[in-house]
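Quick check before the chapter quiz. The format below is the same one you will see on the exam, so make sure you can read both the input and the output lines.
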Amino acid sequence: MKALVYNGPGQRSWREVPDPVIQDPEDAIVRVDAVTICGTDLHILKGDVPTVDHGRILGHEAVGTITDVGASVRGVTPGDRVLVSCISSCGRCEYCRQGSYGQCLGGGGWILGHLIDGTQAEQIRIPFADRSLYKLPANVSTEDALLLADILPTAYEVGTLNGQVSPGDTVVIVGAGPIGLSAITTSKLFSPANVIVVDAAPARQKAALEHGADLAFGPEDDVVALVLGLTGGLGADVAIEAVGVPATFELCTRVVRPGGHVANVGVHGASVTLHLEDLWIKNVTITTGLVDTSSTPRLLSMLAAGRLAMPGLITHRFGLDEMQDAYDVFSRAAETGALKVALFGDTEH
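Here is the expected output.
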């Protein structure tokens, strides 16, 4: 089969690799019907995630069809159309029993495209298949399901829930990429009074407004002063960091009100200064997190029932064998306008 292989910082190749095989009785083999590229994949290619070995197949989000299962798999069978979760769960360790699958101690967590071969391939091996795959209802489209593999649960759990968005809140989301736009969607489930988005790109500011933000600001704006003016001098109840660079995190800490929440979602590849000399007196709660995907069944049920309006994030579509072109488009989002790219196998064309 062919797969997208990481060859070290700045180097990737779409090439022939061995087909995956069952290695453990809890494994499943999945034919990839659709896959996407995540900003985390770009961080890996920049060298920001040194735990990824050279030769690793990247990717951690997919929709596919099961072709084989191990002897201990009970919840899914060959032929099932499934969502491949970005997080794998052993189901037995202390963290998994608490629903904190991202911190799995039993060989799960974020392993796909990180510690084991991932989803940007024609076939994938999925460990702990009963707890890491979700059968898809017939009325859930492949494109919508693809957004539930990582991006929607991440925005919901690490942004909206960690930030404790509540009715009537003012929410500031810094970054209007796919995560930031998804945070608009999930924040609005809790009826905030205002959702304000900050992004350097005018096209993404426009996208934020189209996706339900009330206001969108850019680097030319005095964001802190504007937010203070809109909130009676208090600041945002919740600030969600959705970029992963020092300046955007620091902006979140400056725009949040005393007693507010800063929810960091972005993947950081460089040190950030934490200004405790300013924050210690403000009763600010700062949270970080890797998505657990414990919310995936709920989000999937809401989607199937028509209770979740999925954000239209997929802007570019490719065949699976156009992986290199898809990476080029996604990595130059400021030029191409790409929000999320989707690649489809032959069965989805």
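If your answer matched, good. The mean pLDDT is 95.
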